[in-house]
Amino acid sequence: MIGLQEKQKNRLDLLQKKNNIIAIASSKGGVGKTLVAANIAYHLTKLNKTVTIIDLNLASPGLHALFGINSPAKCINSLFIDSSTKLTEVVVATKIKNLNVICDSHHSLGKLEKADLFVDKLLSAVKLLKSDYVIFDLGTGLSKFDTKLFLSAQTALMIGTPEPTAVKDNFSFLKLCVLHRLEEIYRRDVAALQVIHEAQLSYNSALNDNIKNLIKNIMPDTNPRYDNDKLNFFPKYILNMVRDDSDLLYAQAINSAVNERLRLKLQQVGFIPFCRQLRALLKKSSIEDVLKNANGAKNFYENLANELVADSWVATKYNAPIKIKKLTKVDRDLYQDDQHLICTSSCARWGDCSYQHGGYPCKIKYIGFMNTN
What we know:
Shape: globular
Radius of gyration: 21 Å
Oligomer: single chain
CATH superfamily of the largest domain: P-loop containing nucleotide triphosphate hydrolases
Strand content: 5-15%
Strand order of the largest sheet: 3-4-2-5-1-6-7-8
Number of strands: 8
């Protein structure tokens, strides 16, 4: 009989198959996710790659509007409604060479409730698309549909903005990804699944310890600093709408949260500057002109596209991981108790924060997955 550890290893091997999918996610709306997806796609086409963007924001699709497609004959929801529909039938060519899109519409009420049942069908259908890259523009919120697709992608990019709610929501999304990955690995272990399902509904120290033990037992002979390899989960992070250096603290905030609480390394890809004229440009210019200009982030997108093609992720001067100047640390952390909001010397605001010295409230609310002040 195959032992539990060998079964887990076999399952991880299945999860590690490569694909050409780039998933772009954010649990918070309004962070510019769709435009980032379009920019990445455009700059990949400049490298002579064919790209298809799929609008998977089922609750609030907007890709069709961005590309000026008023009423596509068929949308992604056709795949959910009619089992005979092929994904290749709903592809729409854009005016940009080598760039296609698959749109969605608001016409399928109730599709969100059943969407996660179509994940395997969608992933199988994507293999038939004649594209070098397929970009999933995922929805907001915490649906299993989105986390499953994010986990399935070869490249998983999370988009955030300099807001406390974006830190909180995106942390919750990544936490749910970890729990859903554990569901896949322990799918035949009833006791483990019960712990995982409880952790999806609530948080306490005992549950957190149980989850850590489940992760540890995947590869018990190893004790890495981060558990990305154990979970085969390598999320990357882009901070969008950055106005000045102080906004970079929010990238450090979610980085600390993910490191400390999920034991994951969240690769900081870089940041995109805020563009005051963007709304006006989208109204008066073609989408190709907007993407060609890249709104002050041309070097960022060019380097990101090159790294995707090379699969190297080597930092460059235009696309370097965010580094925050280390602030002065004191001898001990204020709180080690899981029941408190995290306040440690690894916080980006350590040494320059009234909350640290007994003030109120925490300016970042920087983890937010427990108390939010």
